[in-house]
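Morning run. Coffee first, then this:
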Amino acid sequence: MDVRYLKGVGEKRAALLAKLHIETVDDLLGLYPRDYIDYSAPCPLAQAPFDIKCVVRAAILSKGLPARLPGGRQMVRVEAEDDTACLTLVYFNNPYAPKKLEVGAEYLFYGKVGGIFTAREMINPQMLPVSAAGASPLVPVYPLTEGISSAYLAKCVRAALDGGVPITEPLPPELRTKYRLCGKADAVRMIHFPQNAQEVHEARRRLIFEELLALQLGMLLLRTREASRTGAPMRPCSLEPFWASLPFAPTGAQKRAAGELLADFARACPMNRLLQGDVGSGKTLVAAAGMYAAAQSGYQSVLMAPTEILAQQHAATLKNLLSPFGLRVALLTGGVKGAAKKAALRAIVSGEAQVIVGTHAVLSAGVAFARLGFAITDEQHRFGVRQRGQLAAKADHPHLLVMSATPIPRTLALLMFGDLDVSILDELPPGRTPVKTYAVTGKKRADLYGFVRAQLAAGRQAYIVCPVIDESETDMQSVTAYYEETAKPQLAGWRVGLMHGRLKPAEKASVMQAFAAHDIDVLVSTTVIEVGVDVPNANIIVIENAERYGLSALHQLRGRVGRGAGQAHCVLVTDHATEPVRKRLTFLASTNDGFAIAKYDLETRGPGDFFGSRQHGLPALHIADLMADSRALYAAQSEAQSLVAADPGLRAPEHAGLRAIAQALFRDDMALN
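And here it is:
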């Protein structure tokens, strides 16, 4: 049912709900609370902690009149008390909340207590009458958008449940019995309106298992769908001529991964493989070996990169590796225009170009391949399942390789990417000197700039990374302010450049090309340089506000240096050297092993910080957590494998509900037809 027709919604509010991806009543019921306010145990006012959100119980003594403040704001003060202390409730631009409060009545208030011990105050608190708290002391807190409050969402959910909206039970009875799971309807009611913490626990257990089962079923359905179709079978091929052409010896891990690619090429069904390796482990060389092999069987290869800069870099690298064998590399990005674009398109459709490198431009309708057999996406975490599918649809189910420089422990990778086989590059090429990493506080900034100047005087280049573009928090300098107020004065006489995500692609490319050509000595940038062009002469990277990043993100940034001869340096700067921050940054400084860093990051910060927002290319999960819920993930994978083995397409009537939840989870990425 369309959410517009739910009582209390209508067209205007439906447009606001759409920003939360709520279009149907099922979407609304699937927007689970991210937390709860527990009104069951209020804190006495005298013991309420300062600047930490808490619940207090107080009786209303008096209500002041609205007062106008400079700037047009309105303020109302309400005096309240309990047996231990007094409290002033301050409402800004909210005249309706004080009107609901009755003098002499008791209420529960939720917010931060401020002021001083003799004059406590709470600004714009949330409120619940004491009588209402007895019936439902746990009040849901939802993800919000402008114009939509948690109270309004709870009201809508209540209207849907009270209106008898049917809730289908997708799990077979035997699964619910085996794992002691409550029914779907009970779980939905309890997750939104729990009576106690036990109901929250029971609802979460049920809904987490269902979501992870849907994820694993969807992955397996994708795999079985592809496995039944013929791809581009290729002739057996020796890679010895390719390896012999290199001016260096490949690592054992590179040879092993390339061998896994060729074994997949020889099969009748398309390859679906994830190649993950640490920064600098040589994934591009493995991809080039696959391209060489594909060309020997008369097939084209395409590599899709997330940025124009990275696509240009890959194109240059692949030309060096493959041109000795007469293979032509074509570049196709948004920046390729006019005659150059027409020539590239002609070379692709005629088969004259055996290797094509590009951005999302390679997915556009005007791009036609002569005989595409091998498709690669670089930086897997930047692309979803749908984009991988679009690339594969450019030909008769070509072999697909997805590459990621974000190391993930193998067992978790196998669970996360259930539709992919996994190859791992766990060796670095010989001769790469580990980057020396130092963690310092802002007090050392003057010494740090002296060190940077010494490196520049020796003919080297430097990166300086800042987290944000505009001033948004008092303790963080924006990259533009840092560039003008800190970097340029400290590095007077040196050529300092600026780059951030709001520059146009052509501007970014121009800045990076100037840095690569050593027309810029120091590049002040946001994390857009995480995936960027190689500058072997850059041997130092300074990362400001290092505590703001996950360790895996810092490790990726550190990988920008150490690509040339000589010692490279990474300096992590923080003005918030708490004990947890010191521990994390010290750990990063102690190792260059990306897999060890990933494991530590997952364990200490959790997958929300590790993966960021949709950083893993999987469908968005509403309640499950890939790391914290690993036991449920293993159980869901086992059950999904058994179900799909017995009923490959989940076409049996008793599995219709399971197929539906898998389709719903993957609806934004790829249809499971």
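The mean pLDDT is 85. Good start to the day.
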